[in-house]
Specification:
Elements: H1 2-33, E1 49-55, E2 63-68, E3 75-77, E4 86-91, E5 104-109, H2 119-123, H3 125-131, E6 137-152, E7 158-165, E8 170-176, E9 191-199, E10 206-208, E11 222-225, E12 228-230
Parallel strand pairs: 8-10
Antiparallel strand pairs: 1-2, 3-5, 4-5, 6-7, 6-9, 7-8, 9-10, 9-11, 11-12
Length: 231
């Protein structure tokens, strides 16, 4: 009788295992789906890279960043952070660019070089872009206005000024005032925060695309000054 009871209990336990497994799987899926989307490059977790974009109305720009742990040979978007143990090997072409807004690059395991071995270049996307002479990279930063320049009136009008970052690196900010509002109250010594596209030059670099794209094809940028966002 005892032996029969044990066999019955064992049968019940075996039959219940699939339902337990399904419940665990459902719980894992529920936890995964409840995770907030990554909408900004600044929100990418340390050590991860951006490999593409997908539409998501939960993000203010309408696009969610697709991120992953990097591996040798991965194709990453130009604006993606590059973990210090990796370096850009070459620019991706054609279909390899995938859903990245503009450019994409293949990364490989780093062979340390003197050009970007400083802590600033490893931790700061703008410093890294300058050290690697990289252009067309989406970056976010903050600095102090050191000089106001005359507007650039060739083609679209651009308000121009020089910003110095905490690292000492200087940037020329070129803000399209045919699309975005002019920052009328801007003065030397003011603090500004910006999100735009970085273009390398030997003086520190240029930041442009600090505005929305009327055609909706380019990542929207902005400048924040005295609590107001200009885009």
């Amino acid at each position: 009788m005892k032996q029969l009871t044990k066999l019955l209990l064992l049968s019940v336990l075996i039959c219940s295992l699939p339902s337990i497994s399904c419940a665990q799987t459902s719980a894992r899926k529920a936890r995964k789906s409840s995770a907030s989307p990554i909408c900004k490059v600044a929100s990418v977790p340390n050590g991860m890279v951006v490999v593409g974009y997908k539409r998501n109305s939960a993000c203010s720009d309408g696009f969610e960043l697709l991120v992953k742990q990097p591996e040798n040979g991965d194709i990453i978007c130009a604006e993606s952070p590059v973990p210090p143990q990796f370096s850009v090997a070459s620019e991706a072409q054609g279909s390899l660019v995938g859903t990245c807004p503009k450019k994409a690059f293949m990364i490989q395991g780093r062979i340390d070089s003197a050009s970007d071995s400083t802590p600033e270049a490893k931790n700061d996307p703008i410093a890294r872009a300058f050290a690697n002479r990289t252009s067309d990279v989406q970056v976010e930063g903050e600095g102090t206005v050191t000089k106001l320049l005359a507007d650039d009136l060739k083609g679209s009008r651009h308000q121009r000024f020089i910003v110095e970052l905490a690292s000492g690196q200087t940037l020329l900010v070129s803000h399209n005032i045919d699309i975005a509002p002019r920052i009328e109250s801007l003065s030397e010594g003011d603090s500004v925060r910006f999100y735009g596209e970085y273009v390398w030059n030997e003086k520190g670099g240029i930041i442009h695309w600090t505005h929305h794209d009327p055609k909706g094809k380019h990542v929207a940028g902005w400048i924040k000054h005295n609590g107001r966002i200009f885009k």
